[in-house]
Design goal:
By secondary structure, this protein is an alpha/beta fold. The protein folds into 2 domains: about 10-215, Rossmann fold (3-Layer(aba) Sandwich), CATH 3.40.50; about 235-384, Alpha-Beta Complex (Cyclic Phosphodiesterase, Chain: A), CATH 3.90.1140. The protein has 12 helices and 12 strands. The strands form 2 sheets. A 7-stranded antiparallel sheet has the order 7-11-10-9-12-6-8, with helices on both faces. Strands 2-3-1-4-5 form a 5-stranded parallel sheet, sandwiched between helices. Strand 9 and strand 10 form a beta hairpin. About 30% of the residues are buried. The chain binds 2'-deoxyguanosine-5'-diphosphate (DGI).
Length: about 375
């Protein structure tokens, strides 16, 4: 159903929500667009950061070339944003000979009160990751963003610029529910402009259900980057297979080693490394390594071990343990040294024993086996 109000067909109606996050802008817009074939331009679908408003207003112009009614889906919660829209659309109207009708959708007629806050917060938490930008966030992060909008919110004030540009303001209180708000928009437009819009309950129900089921277009390549931890230690990693062979051939019949293989209460390490410097305890050496490998470190995107492309020899000399933990004593003849007094590779421990306890054990072990020194080729790594 397209509107032809004046004979020239130059009337254009723009529905401008004034709202905060979770007020139901997109749900109301999708329902109306589906019922009446109106244009719907979503600011959140504009993924470019620079020139974002230009892209948004170009899309609005494009929508007006195809539709007489367009919903500009953005919070428009500040005077500045409304001003920006009116200016851009006035220019568009001049260029195309449109007669513009600016219609405000007031989602917060009582301001951002407690009830509205609770309704919108609960909707946004339920929406979860089904949003272009608010996704992969915990509750405090979501609340912080929503509170930002709430704090900046400036209510529609038709007595002065820029809101005096609104020809009509429709009350679509978000606390009332989006389906009722669709009906409120339809009857207000019918009253004000004799639009003769019909709504059959079953069509409204179907369009509203589909809007609630809507899946946001998540822009490819703009997914939030994996949250990166800070660097916690530098180490030399050795090949797990080689290390396992070395241990197996030197620890046959050793009870602690056997326990590590079979007991559920024990954990055998899957990955073997000699710690060089830990952020928490060896700050000077840690900083020096961070500075030296700055470029490689800043270039890496992943969490976990990051290979710094340096080979380092590791000589395994003996294996020590007590009742709680086992480690191999090593020496490092290459460029990098360990700030631990007893450089070692932790082998395994009883569950619940922290790996760093190997340091104390190496100082005061219960048992030790000397082995024929074995030279392994390790690789310098950083871990976060
Ligand atoms: O951020 P907005 O575009 O303003 O809000 P939205 O339309 O995306 O709505 C936020 C979430 O709440 C979304 O998952 C749909 C849902 N929602 C919208 N209106 C209603 C609603 N949920 C219920 N139960 N009832 C509504 O009226």
């Amino acid at each position: 159903l397209q509107l032809q109000i004046n004979e020239k067909g130059t009337d254009k109606y723009v529905l401008i929500p004034v709202a905060t996050i979770g007020c139901g802008k997109t749900t109301v817009a999708l329902t109306l667009a589906s019922l009446y074939g109106w244009g719907h331009v979503q600011n959140d679908d504009v993924s470019s950061k620079s020139g974002k408003f230009r892209t948004f207003s170009n899309r609005i112009s494009q929508a007006f070339s195809e539709h007489d009614v367009v919903i500009v889906d953005r919070n428009n919660h500040q005077f500045r944003e409304r001003q920006q829209l009116f200016e851009a659309m006035d220019l568009m109207a001049d260029a195309n000979g449109y007669d513009m009708h600016y219609i405000g959708l007031d989602f917060l007629p009582n301001g951002p009160a407690q009830k509205e806050w609770e309704v919108t917060l609960s909707r946004v938490m339920n929406r979860g990751d089904n949003h272009q930008t608010i996704r992969n966030m915990d509750r405090p992060a979501v609340e912080a963003i929503m509170k930002g909008f709430r704090g900046r919110y400036q209510p529609i004030t038709v007595a002065k610029e820029p809101d005096s540009n609104f020809e009509l303001v429709i009350d679509v209180n978000c606390a009332r529910g989006s389906k009722d708000n669709v009906t409120a928009v339809v009857s207000a437009l019918n009253d004000a402009y004799d639009m003769d819009l019909e709504t059959k309950p079953e069509e409204l129900n179907a369009a509203f259900s589909a809007a609630l089921e809507h899946k946001a277009k998540i822009p490819v390549g703009t997914q939030p980057a994996q949250k990166r931890a800070t660097w916690s230690f530098f180490c030399i990693r050795v090949d797990s297979k080689e290390m396992m062979q070395l241990l197996a051939s030197n620890l046959q019949g050793n009870p602690f080693w056997q326990e590590l293989q079979v007991s559920k209460g024990m954990s055998l390490k899957q990955e073997f490394h000699v710690t060089l410097a830990h952020k928490a305890s060896e700050k000077t050496q840690f900083k020096a390594l961070k500075t030296k490998y700055h470029k490689l470190l800043t270039g890496s995107k992943e969490n976990g071990f990051v290979d710094l492309n340096v080979e380092e020899p590791v000589i395994v000399e003996s294996i020590c343990w007590n009742t709680r933990i086992m480690a191999a004593a090593v020496s490092l003849p290459g460029e990098h040294c360990s700030s631990n007094f007893h450089p070692h590779i932790t082998v395994g421990m009883a569950k619940g024993v922290p790996p760093k306890e190997a340091n104390a054990m190496m100082n005061n072990y219960d048992n030790r086996v000397e082995i024929k020194p074995v030279r392994l080729t390790g690789r310098l790594c950083a871990f976060r």
